[in-house]
Every structure is written in structure tokens, then in C-alpha cells.
Amino acid sequence: MSIRHGLLALLSSGPRYGYQLRVEFEASTGATWPLNIGQVYTTLSRLERDGLVAPDGEDDQGRAVYTITEAGREELGRWFSTPVAQTDRPRDELAIKIAMAVAGGVDVARVIQTQRAATMRALQELTRTKRAASGELAHRLVLDSLIFKAEAEQRWLDHCEAVSKEKNS
Fold it and tell me: Which one of 51, 59, 69, 90 is least enclosed by Cβ atoms within 10 Å?
């Protein structure tokens, strides 16, 4: 996820200070993507440099508060209206690992089975977390996304296993 755009989205509903942005970001994503407070302030500095946020004084406890600028609102609007392309996502380490196992003569079935067990544990944990989750819609949607990805990974691993068995037959 773009931390930059996540912070802009939070600022679009009103001025906030860095730690508040971190807490709200993690609450919105169900702490699935924890943020280091240093990331928040580094990102705020870059957003300010780029004219997308501006300092808005201090709160009553002396914390620096930031507000989104008009340019920031325009950037946020572009982000929300632009689909995320497959090429914009990080490399899939698991796909690379399976490909390298096949190319390197490694026991592919063992690699697949190890991953399948780990993915199943993750899927079970995500399902438990979803059952225990509060009514926060954003958090539930993030969990649903992770559950669907884990389920898709399980199907893909089944496919890899079937294809590698065909190859070895």
C-alpha cells in the first residue's frame, strides 16, 4: 500500500499529527501493515516538500499538526480513481521460489507442501482474527482481502503440485 496516499486519505478528513496518523492508519488496516513512526514523519516531510500537505501549527500539547493542501486533494483523487496495475505490485517471492525450485532441481513437492502448511496456518489465523474483529468495515475488508489471497495461494499451490506431477510422469 502507498503510505503516502494512505496518509493523504487520513488527512483529507481533517488535520492530524504524526502519531495520530500512525494509529489511525494501523486501525484502518487492522494493523496488517504496521507503520514505523519514522516512516510517517519521513513521508510527511516528502509530502510537504511536494506541496501535498502543509504544517498547520501545533495542537494543545505542542505536537506538529499537518493538513492536506488542494494539490494533495487532487493527488488523492487521482490515486482513488486509478486502478492498481499488476505491474505496480511487488514481486511475488513465492512464485519466484517455486520457479527456482523447478529450475534448480530442488524437491518441488517439498517446497510446495511446506508453503501449503504455512499458508493454511495463516488462513486459519486470519479467519480467527476476522471472527474476533470489531465492526470496523475497513478492517474487515482488509482481512477479507488477505483471506481471499491466501485461498488463491492454496489453489495455485494445488495447481503447481499437479503440473509438477504431470511433468515427472
Answer: 90
Tens digit of each residue's pLDDT (9 = 90 or more) over 54-70: 999 999 999 999 999 99
Residue 107: HSE in the Cβ half-sphere, 13 Å Cα cutoff? 6
Tell me the residue type at 65.
Answer: V
Cβ atoms within 10 A of the Cβ of 101, count? 18
Q: Measuring CA to CA, which residue among 102, 79, 81, 100 is closest to residue 91?
A: 100
| Phi, psi dihedrals of residue 92, rounded to the nearest 5° | -90, 100
* DSSP conformation class of 58: E
pLDDT in tens, 72-107: 999 999 999 887 777 766 777 788 888 878 777 778
Which pLDDT belongs to residue 169? 65
CA distance to 22, 34, 65, 133, 158, per residue, from 137 (Å):
18, 18, 27, 10, 32
Determine the Cα–Cα distance for residues 167 and 169; give it in Å rounded to an integer: 6
Cell triple for 111: 517446497
Higher pLDDT, 148 or 101: 148
Half-sphere exposure (Cβ direction) of 111: Cα atoms closer than 13 Å: 19
- Please answer whether residues 134 and 143 qualify as being in contact, where contact means their C-beta atoms are separated by less than 8 angstroms: no
163: its cell numbers: 503440473
What gap in Å lies between CA 2 and CA 75, rounded to an integer?
12
